[in-house]
Amino acid sequence: MDAQTHVRGTSGVGPKVTQSATTAFTLPPLPYAENALEPVISAKTVRLHYGKHNKGYVDTLNQLVAGTPFADMSLKELVLSTAGKPAHAPIFNNAAQAWNHAFYWHSLRAGGGGVPPRALKARIDSTFGGLEALKEELGTAATTLFGSGWAWLVLDGGKLRVVQTANAENPLAAYTKPLLVIDVWEHAYYVDFENRRADYVKGAMEKLINWDFAVENLSSA
Q1: How far is 51 from 57, CA to CA, in rounded Å?
Q2: SS3 content of the chain, % helix, strand, coil (to 5)
Q3: Minimum mean pLDDT among 3-12, 14-23, 44-53, 121-130: which range?
Q4: CA dihedral 57, 59, 62, 63 (to 10 degrees)
Q5: Which of 4, 41, 72, 105 is the most exposed place for a label (fewest CB within 10 A)?
Q6: Residue 126: pLDDT above 70?
Q7: CA pair distance 46, 52, nearest whole angstrom
Q8: Tens of pLDDT along 22-65?
């Protein structure tokens, strides 16, 4: 479920940043109500995060690509074609952040957490030795990342891995398959948790993480 397939005109399952008649990319709707993630993540945080930060990346991206060949690319193609190219850093940063956020919203759900479906659980047990070990590794990746960024569960060459990416970076450029992600930019949690990032991460993993979304991405790999 590549946030791309649902990020304007790609194959797969997941969030979609679509194209409109007037702009290259359109902010996709949230997959749930603004208050759906309470009490872990408040409606106020979701409103600011989605309506200001996420929307800002999409709006800025549209300004940057208007009238260029980039406007005709899918979001995933745009991320891959600008990754690691300093001349296109502003486009990459906003495109990747639009992609990352679309993926993040689907990585959470009301009533999430718990035990993953059997197909994913078997891979977790084989790779990490059990669900608690995976949660510890993912939690450590999320809480120890210096500055802003993302903690991902990915499929890399048929094997599950936990990876960190800083700022707007994501695993696409490394040709690994993202399964789910935790956003650790401060705007994802500071209204509710101030500087207690670890509490936000723990709450997200215990009560919100969307294992079904990870399974859908795994199935489309």
Answers
A1: 10
A2: 50, 10, 35
A3: 3-12
A4: -100
A5: 72
A6: yes
A7: 9
A8: 568 999 999 999 999 999 999 999 999 999 999 999 999 999 99
Cα 183 to Cα 179: distance, rounded to the nearest angstrom: 14
- DSSP 8-class letter at 182: E
| pTM reported for the whole predicted model | 0.90
* C-beta of residue 101 within 8 angstroms of C-beta of residue 54: yes
Looking at residue 17, its pLDDT comes to: 61
Q: Given strand 177-183, what is the order of strands in its sheet?
A: 159-166, 149-156, 177-183
Strands (DSSP E) found in 112-212: 149-156, 159-166, 177-183
> For residue 121, which of 110, 134, 111 has the smallest C-alpha distance?
134
Selection from 210, 214, 199, 216 nearest residue 112 by Cα: 210
Strands (E), 62-216: 149-156, 159-166, 177-183
Q: How far is CA 98 from CA 49, 104, 144, 203, in A?
A: 12, 10, 23, 24
| Cα separation, 13 vs 39, whole angstroms | 28
User: CATH top-level class for 118-219?
Assistant: alpha beta
| Rounded-to-integer distance, Cα 206 and Cα 183, Å | 15
The per-type count for the chain, helices as H runs and strands as E runs, is 9, 3
Domain ranges in the chain? 118-219
Give the torsion sign (CA, 45, 110, 143, 160): negative
